[in-house]
Specification:
It is a single chain. The protein contains 2 helices and 16 strands. The chain is mostly beta strands and about 260 residues long. The strands form 2 sheets. Strands 2, 7, 8, 9, 10, 12, 13, 15 and 16 form a 9-stranded antiparallel beta sheet that branches. Strand 4 and strand 5 form a beta hairpin. The relative contact order is 0.25.
Length: about 260
């Protein structure tokens, strides 16, 4: 992706398959089990079956990077009528790999019907189906997790997912990926092809981009917003592009910049 790339229609096409193909989703449902937590009330829907049922609320960074991280918190219990919801960070996308192949790596917190939220990673390499990895089940509302997707130091094109300071995947090679992709931090909702509304609210804090392999973190500066009808983005604390320095002028109680909330209306 080019720095500052912000063609909204093209972004939507590139975003759509992310997490939509849940390899082993039935197995995940069996592992996680039914939720016993009360769900949130109904929410308005931005996307219908005729629009493929996908909706996004989040940001793409201004510049290409070698990783992206955020402290993610589910701030209200998701109500997933069909499909899934997720808050995630990642790089790459459909058609973004070597020779125009699909290639991406992302990680975040997701939920499906009847489930409590769970932490996952998803990896797609050229010529392969997406690989879905369940990392942690039963993520409570209000508990924060530090999630990062990061290129390895001294190994260009090799990536790992990190959760709470620990590497949780093996090194993954994504050919011709080094320094090519503008990181993304976003929420995603898919209605499963049904006339259904999904409700969610995720807080992203300490959102950063790595400008070198192994972690050279600087403030995330948004170059493009993903914001479908029926969804909201609320800035909590920002990092102005002209200085790259954190400021708290938008901050609410105790948040760590760069920070925002993405939610259904």
């Amino acid at each position: 992706m080019a720095p500052g790339w912000s063609d909204a229609d093209d972004n939507r096409v590139r975003m759509r398959p992310l997490l939509a193909v849940l390899i082993g989703a039935i197995a995940v449902a069996a592992l996680v089990g039914a939720s016993t937590t009360a769900t949130a009330g109904p929410a308005s829907c931005g996307n219908t079956v005729g629009n493929d049922g996908y909706a996004y609320a989040g940001h793409q960074a201004t510049y290409r990077g070698h990783g992206v991280r955020a402290t993610l918190t589910v701030i209200r219990q998701p109500n997933v009528a069909a499909g899934h919801v997720a808050g995630w960070v990642g790089v790459g996308g459909p058609g973004q790999g070597a020779n125009g192949e699909d290639a991406w790596i992302q990680a975040g917190v997701a939920s499906m019907p009847g489930m409590d939220p769970f932490i996952y990673a998803e990896i797609t390499r050229g010529g392969r189906d997406p690989e879905f990895i369940l990392l942690e089940q039963g993520v409570p509302v209000g508990r924060s997790h530090r999630i990062a997707v990061l290129e390895m130091s001294g190994r260009p094109g090799w990536w790992r997912v990190w959760v709470d300071g620990a590497a949780v995947t093996e090194p993954v090679r994504l050919r011709e990926s080094s320094g090519r992709w503008a990181p993304i931090a976003t929420t995603e909702s898919w209605n499963g092809g049904e006339s259904a509304c999904n409700a969610f609210s995720f807080r992203f804090e300490r959102v950063s981009v790595s400008y070198g392999g192994g972690g050279s973190w600087r403030p995330f500066v948004t170059g493009h917003r993903f914001l479908d009808d029926g969804y909201t983005l609320r800035d909590l604390a920002s990092a102005p592009a002209e200085t790259g320095a954190y400021r708290r002028s938008l901050a609410s109680d105790g948040v760590i910049p760069y920070a925002f909330v993405a939610a259904s209306s």
